[in-house]
Amino acid sequence: MNHIAGIIPARFASTRFPGKPLHLLAGKPLIQHVWERCMEARRLDRVIVATDDMRIAGAAFDFGAEVALTSADHQNGTDRIAEVARHLRKVTHILNIQGDEPLIDPRLIDLLAARLTRKNAVPMVTAASEIRDPQDFSNSNVVKVVLDRRSRALYFSRSPIPFDRDRSGGAAPLRHQGIYGYSRAALLQFVKWSPGVLEHTEALEQLRALENGMDIEVVVTESHAPGVDTPEDAIRASAVLAAAG
Q: Among 22, 72, 88, 216, which is disulfide-ready with 153 (CB 3.0 to 4.6 Å)?
């Protein structure tokens, strides 16, 4: 029987936005908005905030979250959730939900959970949406993905891919969304692999899976909730949340 955990990695230190998880948006810490969206999803059996910081842990306890304290030595969120997953013996699948996406759609979480646990599912899933703004296509901070005919990822890049050489209006460019699902076994295998040349080149850890032959199914969705990377992003997100009531 499948048992799915949603894990939200959160750290206090951030080069561009220190203390970001506890920044107040519409009267609540950012991390609380993410947790509440996860709690609205129907397919998650557990939702866990994974952090190495007692300030974040204390805030999460206060709003009722399950919290897992992790090592402070992790280089990324995937390593942090893998530490938690090692102790979740009954959990079969993990969703890694970024701690800086207060507007994430619970329906997208459920959709990825369903794809991850269906018969003959691939070991890893993620999401993408169509890029409509040409500036986003050329922006190196917007990660692009190209797919094969089975909706498996061929490649992720910060560069504009696919390049429309003849300007024929071919394949629609896709923006990768930073939510991942794994079977527990795939996640624990992923963190055992060393980062490869492509991962180092693009600074994209999902390329580690492709370099090692792991399939990634990409769900193309209309849903796109911008994350909070800077204080300016927080102002925009707070306005959206306040307007939503």
A: 216
Say how far apart CA 204 and CA 140 lie, in whole Å. Answer: 12
How far is the C-alpha of 127 from the C-alpha of 112, rounded, in Å?
Answer: 8
pLDDT at 172: 86
Q: Residues with Cβ < 8 Å from 120, sequence gap 6 or more? A: none
Judge residue 71's burial from the number of C-beta atoms within 10 Å of its C-beta, 0-12 exposed, 13-18 middle, 19 or more buried: exposed
pLDDT score at 137: 93
Cβ–Cβ contacts within 10 Å for residue 37, how many? 22
Q: Write out the H or E segment, with its range, that includes residue 138.
A: helix 134-138
Contact by Cβ (8 Å): 178, 142: no
**DSSP one-letter string for 202-213:** HT-TTHHHHHTT
Q: What does the pLDDT average to over 36-40? A: 97
Q: How many CB atoms lie within 10 A of CB 17?
A: 18
Classify residue 77 as left (phi > 0), alpha (psi -120 to 50) or beta: alpha
Radius of gyration of the chain (CA): 18
All domains of the chain in start order, with CATH? 4-244 (3.90.550.10)
Q: Are 58 and 10 in contact (CB under 8 A)?
A: no
Q: Cα(2)–Cα(183) distance, rounded to whole angstroms?
A: 10
CA 239 to chain CA centroid, Å, is: 23
Tokens of 42: 């129907």
